[in-house]
Amino acid sequence: MTSKNYIKMIVYFNDKYIPHDEVKISPFDRAFLFSDGVYEALRTYNGKLFRLDDHLERLKYSLQQLEIPFHDFHQIEDISKTLADINKIKTDYSVYLQISRGVSFPRTHNYESNLTPNVFAFVKPIKDNSKEIKAGVKIILEKDLRWLRCDIKSTSLLPSIMANQNAIRNNAYEAILFRDDFFTEGSHTSFFAIKDNKIFTAPLSNYILNGITRKVVIELCKENKIDICEEYIYVNELKSFVEFFITGTTTEVTPVIQIDDWIVDDGKPGKITRKIQQLFFNAVKQV
After folding, report:
1. Are residues 98 and 121 in contact, defined by beta-carbon separation less than 8 angstroms?
2. Does residue 153 carry a catalytic annotation?
3. How high is the mean pLDDT in each 10-residue block of the chain (287 residues)?
4. Which end of the chain offers a freer environment for a tag, N or C, measured as fewer CB atoms within 10 Å?
């Protein structure tokens, strides 16, 4: 959707609900100057925020790692619901929440401990991705050029943006990143591969984000006695795998049927991926 669809969008900014084009942020805000801020992306199922506690824990972790003094986590659910009501969103929606360290003048690399964070949020209807979920998608492989603290959900996203833009340029849905000889994750998704009836995904570390949908998939596998292993998928072993899928808050569980020019297996989503999808969508129906 273009910005024309949101001419009358009401957003949240520092305790106020105002039209998006009336938000005023100082050029000395450290998120603007240094990407010195964090964000979270949530969504609803049946009008309820999915895995809210997990998202809040990840947000707390990111803020703690960057020493940003924000503590009003209890407001986030109310802010999201209020934004949906004000904007008359009747369907399920996604929530973007960003917290910057705040304004510091003049510009200096170091920061004072008493800055007041700027808090910004907006909601929008969930985009229909049923076609991709049913048919599967193409991905490309890109070198992981990101910093070494990918476990922090920082607003410093330029390498991910460049990788994803290159995917779009190549008629692909996503770019999967590799560092040295192993895969980490996608530009905005988690990456899974399957062989010998066993699912693999990269272990939690500073190289990847603690994806919430990733966490849900791992839980579902364990509950349903599906063999899953948090181990790196190595670049030189890629074609030994027979199924792939990616996960994310709005990506949900999406099959991968093509990697660069390689058509995976018969070019259709695999049976284990389909089983994971079914388990996932059964779970969210119960929210």
Report:
1. yes
2. yes
3. 63 98 97 98 97 98 97 96 97 98 97 96 97 98 98 98 98 98 98 98 98 98 98 98 98 98 97 98 92
4. N
Please tell me the CATH superfamily of domain 130-285, with its number. Answer: D-amino Acid Aminotransferase, subunit A, domain 2 (3.20.10.10)
* Residues 177, 164 contacting (CB under 8 angstroms): no
- Set 153, 195, 239, 271: catalytic member: 153
Token code pair at residue 167: 């995917």
Domain boundaries, the chain: 3-125, 130-285
Quote the pTM value: 0.95
Closest CA to 120 of 7, 2, 250, 25: 25
pLDDT attached to residue 34: 98
Tokens at 164, concatenated: 């994803």
* Structure token pair of residue 136: 């599967």
What's domain 3-125's architecture?
Answer: 2-Layer Sandwich (3.30)
